[in-house]
Design a protein that fits this description.
Strand content: 15-25%
Bound molecules: zinc ion
Oligomer: single chain
Structural class: alpha+beta
Shape: globular
Helix content: 25-40%
Distance between the termini: 48 Å
């Protein structure tokens, strides 16, 4: 007997591969819609928001590596503490959070 509930098993994981701004934005968009979807599973998205302190700092959780990444806002300029850069995926995620939350 074959059961065909394949749709439920298809989660394309949203993974950071190049560590660029665009990937962070994409993670944020999916994370936000999963949040708004009342408890939809969102652990297929690599990044999720853990702590949000507007204009100050943001703590992002990496679900795939099980680490927290801090992004600080220094006079409005986001800096990723992990990557020590201004244009990684975490920055993209943090900037979207600032704009949308
Ligand atoms: Zn980073």
């Amino acid at each position: 007997m074959f059961t065909s509930e394949s749709n439920n098993n298809y989660f394309s994981t949203l993974e950071i591969r190049n560590n660029i701004l665009e990937e962070g934005r994409e993670c944020f968009t999916h994370w936000l819609s999963a949040e708004e979807g009342n408890g939809e599973r969102n652990n297929y998205i690599q990044l999720s928001l853990k702590i949000f302190e507007k204009d100050s700092r943001i703590l992002i959780h990496d679900n795939f590596h099980n680490i927290d990444i801090e992004v600080k806002f220094d006079n409005g300029v986001p800096v990723c503490i992990l990557c020590n850069t201004y244009d990684c995926a975490h920055i993209g995620f943090a900037v979207c959070a600032e704009q949308n939350l």
